[in-house]
Design a protein that fits this description.
Layout lengths: L1 H8 L5 H13 L6 H52 L1
Helix pairs in contact: 1-3, 2-3
Amino acid sequence: MKSEFEAAAGTKVSDGDYEAANLVYMHHPACKDKKDIGTLWKMGGRALIDDMTRRARRVRYVDEALSRARSEVNRLNDVKEQLSRA
């Protein structure tokens, strides 16, 4: 939530800045909790967040691919189960 980020960062931010910081917070391996993203913002602001965005996007992509793969494995296990009952 934007207000929580602003409290952790100690400043008001634009919606765009919040969206960039939230992407890093949600997906970058260096961010473990809300305090981390606030500290990162205080250290380097939007420039640091922008530097971290590429890796965060890659992690998000991999997370989404893993989710799709798990869904496909579950679907195939269901098919296998149905075939074994036939």
